[in-house]
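Table S2 (continued). Query chain:
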Amino acid sequence: MIHIQEKYKKKLHKLTNRVGAAIMAIEVFLAMLIIIAVLISGVALVISVVQQGSLTHLLDYDNFQSLLSYLLMLIIGLELALMLIKHKPSNVIDVMIYAIARKMLIYSTATIEMLVGVIALGILFIIKVSLKKAKVEEDQDIANN
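Corresponding output:
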C-alpha cells in the first residue's frame, strides 16, 4: 500500500513538473510576442514622427500627449513581458506603477482622479521599497550562513 502511494506521488510530481514547464514555455512565448509587437510599434512610431516632417508638430499639446500615451503603452508592454518571464513581485508593482502613471498623465482630468492616482502610486512605492528591503535582508541572511 505504501509503495503504491509513493509511486503515485512520483507520477504526480512528474506531471506537475511537466505542466509547470509547459506553462513557463507558453509564458515565454507570449512575452516574445509582446516584445515583437512593441518593437514593431516602436519602429512604426519613429517612421510616423519622421514622416510628419518636423518636431514643431510634437510641440502641440495634443500631439505630445498622444505621443506620450503611445510611449507609455510600449513601456507597459515591455514591463508586462518582463513580468511574464521573471515572476517577481517587484515586476508586478512596476507594471501597476506605469499603468497608473499613464492613466494620470493622459486621461485624468478631475482632481479626485489625480488624488487617487497619487495615493495609489505612493502605496505602490512603499510596497516596492519594502520588497527591496526584504530582499536585501534575505541576501544578507544567506551571506551570513
